[in-house]
Q: What sequence folds into this?
């Protein structure tokens, strides 16, 4: 009997969960003024049934094979996302290597042509020496400019009005990025002694231009040098062709992995939930909403949250799933400072539903958030339906005092 009484006490839905007070804007805080946290999962459970939400807050875990199967399915989906990102990183690495090699081929080809035309008399000796001098002077100018840019915090001086601010970025994407990037893609915060892509370009260009200028100016037997450069260029071109073959193979593998992950060609994967191992928790400190969407994809420069759902495919999205996705849309807009127009609910492999992020959706989300916070402070959760089937499918029905079955 004592054990039964403890269970009934744990499942008492009339009592509050925490102490708190309501702010003027309708949201609830604890007694110290900290906003009460509401997860996207809280919003889903409350929309499905407030009693189920209250049971989960009381520590009642969900039971059933469907729940375990859903967890395994989410892990499988995340693994596919990782496989895709890994394939994409390998393809990007091979492409960067090829771009470096083809740049060398272009430079060698230009040198070979210049020396050939000089030896044939098409271009005068004086002209080619003048070109060499100009290239050396240009290299010195670029070198001085690069040193000046490294020494001065010029990005900080220019700032956002000049369009030099970095694009939105989601820290803690849950994706291991081992991509080999070109030094031209590197960008850092402005400051004394810090270099970004602009400075790296100038430094490398000044070195390359200086070497070409000196070679052109000091070369004696230009015919022999032109022949040697042509041979080297052809050999390097063969290496580039082999590298291009590797790029095409890796690119095809990346496309196959992307298709297997359920992503379209226009979608760029920016975030994937890995059950909190490395994926960041998105938080809005103003409303208390927080959570980790299954994925965030970039479509037409907009960050779009994607929520994966397993089980039976519905005719229309469930209200509880819609509410959870609305929370993710709100969190993404707060995190990236760019407001998406919609989010995506994916049921199974190919069934997609878009959920609009409009004024009505915002009202639904914020009212539900405030209601959950109120229940946390005042208690009194009650069943919001009269459907036996809904109770039968609830994973907490065995311990629910208001169950219809």
A:
């Amino acid at each position: 009997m004592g054990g039964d009484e403890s269970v009934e006490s744990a499942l008492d839905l009339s009592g509050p969960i925490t102490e708190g007070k309501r702010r003027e804007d309708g949201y609830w805080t604890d007694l110290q003024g900290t906003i009460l946290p509401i997860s996207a999962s809280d919003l889903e459970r409350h929309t499905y049934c407030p009693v189920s939400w209250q049971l989960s807050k009381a520590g009642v875990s969900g039971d059933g094979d469907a729940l375990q199967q859903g967890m395994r399915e989410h892990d499988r989906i995340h693994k596919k996302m990782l496989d895709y990102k890994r394939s994409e990183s390998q393809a990007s690495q091979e492409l960067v290597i090829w771009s470096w090699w083809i740049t060398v081929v272009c430079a060698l080809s230009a040198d070979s042509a210049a020396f050939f035309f000089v030896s044939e008399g098409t271009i005068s000796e004086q002209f080619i020496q003048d070109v060499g001098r100009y290239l050396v002077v240009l290299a010195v100018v670029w070198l001085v400019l690069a040193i000046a840019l490294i020494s001065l915090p010029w990005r900080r001086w220019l700032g956002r009005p000049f369009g030099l601010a970095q694009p939105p970025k989601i820290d803690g994407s849950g994706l291991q990025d081992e991509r080999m990037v070109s030094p031209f893609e590197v960008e850092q915060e402005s400051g004394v002694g810090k270099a970004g892509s602009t400075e790296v370009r100038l430094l490398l260009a000044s070195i390359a231009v200086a070497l070409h200028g000196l070679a052109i100016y000091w070369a004696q037997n230009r015919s022999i040098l032109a022949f040697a450069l042509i041979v080297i260029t052809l050999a390097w071109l063969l290496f580039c062709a082999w590298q291009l073959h590797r790029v095409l193979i890796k690119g095809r593998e990346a496309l196959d992995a992307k298709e297997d992950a359920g992503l379209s060609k226009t979608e760029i994967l920016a975030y994937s939930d890995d059950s909190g191992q490395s994926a960041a928790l998105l938080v809005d400190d103003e409303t208390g909403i927080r959570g980790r969407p299954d994925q965030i994809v970039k479509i037409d420069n907009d960050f779009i949250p994607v929520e994966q759902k397993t089980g039976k495919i519905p005719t229309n999205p469930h209200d509880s799933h819609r509410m959870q996705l609305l929370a993710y849309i709100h969190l993404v807009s707060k995190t990236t400072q760019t407001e998406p127009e919609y989010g995506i609910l994916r049921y199974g492999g190919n069934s997609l539903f878009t959920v609009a992020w409009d004024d009505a959706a915002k009202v639904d989300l914020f009212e539900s958030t405030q209601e959950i916070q109120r229940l946390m402070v005042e208690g009194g959760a009650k069943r919001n339906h009269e459907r036996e089937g809904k109770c039968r499918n609830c994973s907490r029905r065995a311990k629910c005092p208001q169950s219809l079955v």
About this structure: The radius of gyration is 31 Å.
